[in-house]
Amino acid sequence: MRNDLTDKMSLKEKFGHVRNLLSCLYQIDRTYFFLATVRLLLDAVKSALIIVLSADILGLLYVSAPGEEIMRPVIWLLAFSFGLSLFSSVLLNEYIQPKRDNIGRIYDGNYAAKFQQMDYSLIESPYVMKLNERIIRANNWGAGIYSVFWDFDAIVSGIFKLVSSVIIVFPLLKIIAESGNVWMYLGLAGLTAILCLLTIGIAKANASYQQWFLASLDELFPEEMRKKYVSTSWYWVMRCISGDYHFIKDIHLYDGYEMMEHYTTGNMREGEKQMPWVSVTEKLCGKLGFLRGTAESLITLAGFLISAAYALLGAFPVGDVIKFASAFTNMLSGVQNMAYQCNGLIVTARRAASTLEMMNIGDEMYRGKLPVEKRLDNQYEIEFRNVSFRYPGTETYALKNLSLKLHIGERMAIVGMNGSGKTTMIKLLCRLYDPQEGEILLNGVDIRKFRQEEYIRLFSVVFQDFKLLSMPLGENVAASLDVDEKLAEQVLRKAGLSERLAKLPEGLETWLYQDIADDGVEISGGEAQKIAIARALYKDAPFVLLDEPTASLDPLSEYEIYSGFDAMVGDKTAIYISHRLSSCRFCDDIAVFHEGRLVQRGTHEELLKDEQGKYYELWNAQAQYYT
What we know:
627 residues, ABC transporter transmembrane region fold, 2 domains, six-stranded mixed β-sheet
């Protein structure tokens, strides 16, 4: 990962990041930057016309010209200013701002889509986790991707200011040159150079400070300190601001105000004591801001003093004082904008580089090309053959030398203590990961050869950490915008939600939770489990997998749910994963896992006969719940 914000980079690399970011945004909307440039050009033309016509009006007033002659440039000034301002405003509000917002949404949406579609094995890899951490940290600075638009506007505006000002000032410089006063000409050139160097110097100091701060961030602000004094504080502050009702009721009931104060404002105050360098950097920022403001004031003052001096010396008419001073100020202001915002654009592009790197990550998992045979009889057999697997970034095997066959229509329980490899086996079965050793076969063919999108249709899975979304109930069940209402209602009734469904105000259109919809309904943990089971039934896949979705329930309640689910599954292949044994009584086959290995296999009665076995140990430890 070469795009770390703390890396020292060559000028070529810096502008490479800018080019990549602008190219990415251009691909989203190919007209935005053109329209933005047109608007900035109109604004520059308007400013130049105001300078020129204002100077003409002042000159006419100075020589007491007739009113009719004075009104002519006044009318032109008003007409041009109004017309150009109106056109610029229409461009900004009707086209540019909506496009800007849309680009930001699509940019964020593309990142979210990439993260969702990425290989699951990559998402949990140390590389992607570190990259994502950098993205989150980078996006916490400034206005995120929207800084690009403001930096672009400032830079292009600065270029137009510089060009238009030079065009206006050039005739006046010619007058000064022809006057024969070399010292006056050299003095003007020298002062201009000094002010430009001052502006660029302050901008460079600001850029150096930002580079130092980013390079020293990990040293000044270690990860533990960030989490303790910033991340934790802002996490709870934002949850309170957003009115997260899921936890506020507990704060009320348990009088947790003092605890929350500690984790919000208390942590922030303590952070100020533990991180004194923060106030130092804030003061440095203030000094740089003061220097920038001083430079701006000096530029304006110098412009008026120089033009006034030349007018008094007779170098050009008094009316040109405004023209020269304004153009001179505008020119140096353009240089200042470009100096500051070029650095700003480079920093923004570097921050966005991690996001672009994430979006350009290619899939490592082979997607396969063979179609999965569609069998009406669902005669599928899956075999694990000498499969070993360890998670990315670890040396310990989560599964070791696993050999196991799953036959159609059977009920299998996979049991074992937490961390024994049960869930890992399911992740491999569903091709969330590929094993490092061995192979998994579907009807004798390595599953890696099948089209992945077709292969995963064979499985309906309810994980322990299943999630329901703040969306309508029907879409939660169908996992799609296209809902078969008859089927959705049927599986919800099978899952035991007939009464609850009848009471919902909008039926399947009822939104779950109130995160998005104010009239959303809150559901209990048991109801959520039933909806998750209904979702598995709706998919109607040949293999149904339950990976401890009832782990939060007591063993008897778990047994009741498993018994009911077993009846719903019918002739499908069902696999029950649990560290508790409530599912074993009605299963044809039981596989016992321990420390990543398959240590026993058989029926309930067969396994209980082995008093030295792991199953016997687990059963007797839990027997009080099943007798």
